[in-house]
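Re: that chain you flagged

S.,

Sorry for the slow reply, it's been a week of failed gels. I finally had a moment to sit down with the sequence you sent. For the record, here it is as I used it:
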Amino acid sequence: MLWRSLVLALLLILGAVRVPAAAAAVPELEWRPCTGLYPAERFPADALCAKPRMPLDHDDPRAGTIELVVAKLPARSNDRIGTLFLNPGGPGDSGVNLIRDAERVRRWSPELRERFDLVSMDPRGVARSTPVHCPDMGDPRLPLFPYERAQEPAYLAAAAAYTEDCGRRAGRLLDHVSTADVARDLDLLRRAVGDAKLTYQGGSYGTYLGMVYANMFPDRVRAMALAAVVDPQAWAGDQLGRAGDQARASEQVLRRFSRECRAAGERCALAARPGDIHQRITRLYDRLRDEPVRVRFKGVAEPVTMTYDVTVLDLARGMYWPREWPATARYLAALEAAVASRPYEPLDKRPSSDVADYNWAANHAVTCTDSVTPRDPSHWTRTARALDRQAPIFGRYFLYGGTLPCATWSGKAADRYPGPFDKPTSARLLLVNNLYDPATPYQGAVRASRLLASAHLLTVRGYGHDTRVPCVLEAEARYLIDGRLPGVGCTGGDRPFTT
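Prediction finished late last night. Pasting the structure tokens below so you have them in one place:
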């Protein structure tokens, strides 16, 4: 035993181990109607909210607390199984909004709604919970991302100023918003609701949270359905590589979009004119890079100036949701017509209108502290050169849009989880991924399924970042309720441009 004590003492001196001062207490959840706590928001009538206090630092619970906001939809059946914890993704997305909008956005089969309390939180740093409050990184004089080399120095300087300001404003919180911190919060909530093991459903980044939890607490998993799967090693590693994967996947999906559009004929606005649709889109974006275009929108008196960076954001978001591909095609057709001074029908909206209120500071706080992304900004400029060839439309958007703050980020997670991700778990995990997903590429799901000690991958023959199709909803319900795993494949709903 003496040698173990000596080794532990040496590791403590070197800073490789942090010993908790005391175990964090299980919080009490005082549920109250969400409509009373948030009267300005439209929650379902039966939605309940609680505001437990959590340790700022789980290794030192006496060092202060933060507030989490948690929301619940109680099970509708007397045959209740337990609690199904939910995470919508991000990082930076609000789980409370997921509950608030449950009746408008159908994310679960009716049977899950009957058998489980549905519970989700705004993770630490996000929305109603103790938030990471930082100014916008954007300088109105700069583009959303530097799409020309000459724009890079000013953009790098703006990112450095943003991270310095964010560190000043958020302080110690930035050191305690890693995914491992959120996983510890999740485990305390599991204990607070009285469940012996965790039942969990996560999407996109929520799949990474699930995998971190499963490997930190491998004996506490009852069932875990993870859709739009993040490659855990890529997330915990260098975020520049992950950004490149997303850019190349988006280029691939754009080619599939172009093929489906041509096959759809009159149901796709771009198919009304002759020529290879992918080549036309490429030429359009080459033209927009040189000069903006003014586009008319319904209900707006004057045409809106559309710059290259804004239209790339719109196209990237448009690839996420195949049900919106007809609207994305109308948007591209209007841009093409405006560039050529041809008449066109004014547009209803931009494809990226859903990201206006996104909490980028919370996203950066988690992404940068979870990863070992390089601290030298020159890595971005070199990577950008390669992506200019590999993913000419999307490369710089993904590279600079979400990862550059990591080069100068001031927060350093005290407890980031770097792996391993192959610990044997008490239940087999269900992974679900579309074949053509621009945000979480299919090969990342394959790598995750091989890395995890016990996982089953359901491959959806479909497009986009949304797996809410009938065959998946049914498969997830059967698995979460009775542990029954589906087959290895299913078809992702209606073909694009058919509805």
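What I noticed first: Residues 375 and 407 are 4 Å apart (CA to CA).

Talk soon,
D.
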